[in-house]
Amino acid sequence: MSVERPKNPTLDQLRTVCQPPEVRARKNAEHWTAELYLRHVSIYLTAVLVRTRITANGVTGLMILAGWCMSLTLLIPGVWGPVLAVVLSQVQLYFDCSDGEVARWRASQSPRGVFIDMVGHHTTEALIPIALGYRVFNELSSDPASEGQAWPTLFMAACLSVLLVLNRSQSLMVHAARGMAGLGKLPDTAAARAVPTTTMIGRLRSLARFLPFHKLLHAVELSLIILLCSVISAALGSPGSAEKWMIWILLPACLLVNVGHFLSNMASSRLKA
Known about the structure:
The model has no long low-confidence stretch (mean pLDDT 85). The protein has a single domain (11-271), classed as Four Helix Bundle (Hemerythrin (Met), subunit A), CATH 1.20.120. With 273 residues, the protein is an all-alpha fold. It has helices spanning 11-18, 21-24, 32-49, 56-73, 80-106, 111-141, 150-180, 200-208, 219-236, 241-267. The chain is built from 10 helices and no strands. It starts with 10 loop residues before the first helix and ends in a 6-residue tail after the last helix. Keywords: Membrane, Transferase, Transmembrane, Transmembrane helix. One of its GO terms (molecular function) is phosphotransferase activity, for other substituted phosphate groups.
């Protein structure tokens, strides 16, 4: 249902409607960069978008396009590909903030919009390791000394892609399981996701706060790590070498994150009737 809003809103009007406290306080849905700088800047982009005919789902489409282009830039040899990937990761986040803000301003939130947003994030994080694996595959294939590692690295990158998507999907599986069991939606707060610290899993989860490796498995963080690895490879004069080790290290680490995420979900109260 549409709501009549000013056609030329002020920034204060936009912040009141598009960035209410309950949105800014979301623990799990907000990327750490949102509070640091994204929400302070995205409102200016939203101010431009609400004056156009583009829909909130159209903005989400731009977010998805930016994410897919981020993966494609990794196919550019050298450092410039990863540099562009980092830039596009920021563009994707700005559109990701603005699509929800446009939807709130126009009161056009819908399950379809949420679904499209999830498709965007899942496909982006799936494509990044595949594009990285192909990038490394090309570099290793051109070096006779490393040619034998090319195909195994590409396969490991594909496995990493699956694990990244699985890790992101586990949180959605919890909501789906609750819905199918007739339980209500949980608030997006730390308390709702808490695991009792009296259990072994709860204590391990508390320790994980001091080494939050799982937070490195998102598109922004991955693009930054890839850029760092590409700089190291260039400095060593061995294209793809550092990126290869990145894939080899991330694969078992991501497997452990998935196992920990699964055990944490099973031990929490979220899956209890």
